[in-house]
Amino acid sequence: MSRSSGATPRHSHHRLVRWHRIALYASGVALLLSGGIWLAVHYSVGAGAGELPHPLEAWCMRVHGLAAFCGLFTLGALAATHIPQGWRLVHRRRWSGQRRTGLMLCAAGAALALTGYALYYFAPEGVRPALGWAHAVVGVSMACLLQHHRRGQRERDEAAARPEPR
Question: Do residues 20 and 26 lie in contact, with contact meaning Cβ atoms separated by under 8 Å?
Fold first, then answer.
């Protein structure tokens, strides 16, 4: 493809570099699984069910905390490279919908960091359950938003790969 044909070469797409993508999805999957397992154990056989805390609860939180640090590092790296580049690209029609998705992902990431920090350090016992459920809902919503964005990206890539009608 030449530049004069108006087609965008494949390498110029605004994609995450490989290590960003791997780190983002690995930390996201670890966060989702560890948080989901903790919720299931906590409310079925653990402290949330009126029992003593199950030993798996503590391990899930340890994994969740480690994955959260990895996720925050990755989001910081994205904030330095991917986000500013994407912000400059949104004037192109093809990328115009990405700003809204990116802003929602950034807001969800900030909400998760704040609610997670509050749950760990500050939340009084009367607020913890509601704050915990809000944290879980935002986390699952963020995972759904990422999956939706990924499916839309795949559809756009397939449409761009089709030959143009003459």
Answer: no
**What's the pLDDT tens digit per position in 94-122?**
666 677 788 888 899 999 999 999 999 99
CB-based contact 32:140 (threshold 8 Å): yes
CA distance 113 to 108: 9
Q: What's the Cα-to-Cα distance from 130 to each of 9, 126, 136, rounded to whole Å? A: 48, 8, 10
H/E/C letters for each residue in 2-71?
A: CHHHCCCCHHHCCCCCHHHHHHHHHHHHHHHHHHHHHHHHHHHCCHHHCCCCCHHHHHHHHHHHHHHHHH
Residue given tokens 């350090």 in the structure block: 121
| Structure confidence at residue 86 as a pLDDT band (50, 70, 90) | confident
Number of Cβ atoms within 10 Å of the Cβ of 38: 23
Whether the CB-CB separation of 101 and 149 falls below 8 Å is answered with: yes
pTM comes to 0.78
Residue 166: other Cβ atoms inside 10 A: 3
Which pLDDT belongs to residue 27?
Answer: 96
